[in-house]
Amino acid sequence: MNRPSLKRSFFQRLLGKPATTLPLDSGCWTNDTKRIVVDLDRAPELSQPYGALRIEASTLPRRILVVRDAEGNYRAYCNHCNHGGRHLDPVPGTEYLQCCSVGKSTYTVEGEVVSGPAALPLTVYPTHVEGHLLYVDIA
Fold first, then answer.
1. Can you tell me the distance from the alpha carbon of 89 to that of 2, in angstroms, rounded to the nearest whole number?
2. pLDDT digit string (tens) for 33-63?
3. Domains along the chain?
4. What is the pTM of this model?
5. Distance from the first to the final alpha carbon of the chain
C-alpha cells in the first residue's frame, strides 16, 4: 500500500527541516515537570483539523508535537523520530505522521510504525481539554 507523504524537497529532508512551525504566540503554553498547558484561544495552529504545533524549550525534557485530528481530538507525541531523532510532522489531510528526514518513517496517529526505517513506536502522551485549556501529561 502506498502511504501519503509530506511534500518536501530533498534538501529539506536532508537538513531535517520540519514543516510544522513553532507557535505564533510563544506565550500560548506553559509547563511544569508533569504537564504542558496550551491555551487553545492563543494557539490558532490547533483551531482546525490536522493543525499542529511544535513545543520546544530548554525547560522541557523533550520536544513535543501536538496535533488536532479529523474529529477534533488533540494528540501529543514526543517529537523525536525513533529512527534518526528528527522532527515529526502530520501529513496534511491524513491520519499519519512522518519524519522530516530522508528516511520518511511514517506513523499512525496512535504512534505505530507503518513504513520507513523506524522500528519502534512513538511515545504518545495523554491529553485532555478543560474549557479552552489543553493539558498534555508528560510525566
1. 18
2. 899 999 999 999 999 998 999 999 998 989 9
3. 10-137 (2.102.10.10)
4. 0.90
5. 36
